[in-house]
Write a structure and sequence with these properties.
It is a single chain. The chain has 122 residues and is mainly β. It has one domain (2-35, 46-106): OB fold (Dihydrolipoamide Acetyltransferase, E2P) (Beta Barrel). Helix content is 8%, strand content 55%. The protein contains 1 helix and 8 strands. Strands 1, 2, 3, 6, 7 and 8 form a 6-stranded antiparallel sheet that branches.
Amino acid sequence: MQFARLEIAGNLTANPCATFGGATTRTELRIASTPRHQTSDGTWADGQSAFVSVVAFGPLAENIIESVQSGTAVRVSAKARTSEWVDDTTGEIRSRLEFVVSEFAIDLARQTANVTKVRPSA
């Protein structure tokens, strides 16, 4: 089941790492997004942080793992979907909402990056 799209800008809270489910690379990322606002005296203040977990698969996951680390400012577009599995201990069907990354960018407004183009797989 597909749900709405999520657009988030923030910083990675940890280094991405690969997990393997079959032949596809998977990485889970946690992004902290903290809104800023200008106070009445003209100074800037941080709002309450929101922490969002997202997941990426395949070549995108591999490129993310090779390209970013904890603290990197990123912009992510993801689609919400439900994921279902059978609980090994109870045999019950479980589900959860997860955000699957469709686009991932390093936020160049807050840092610089060196880009290396990858060759498409054959």
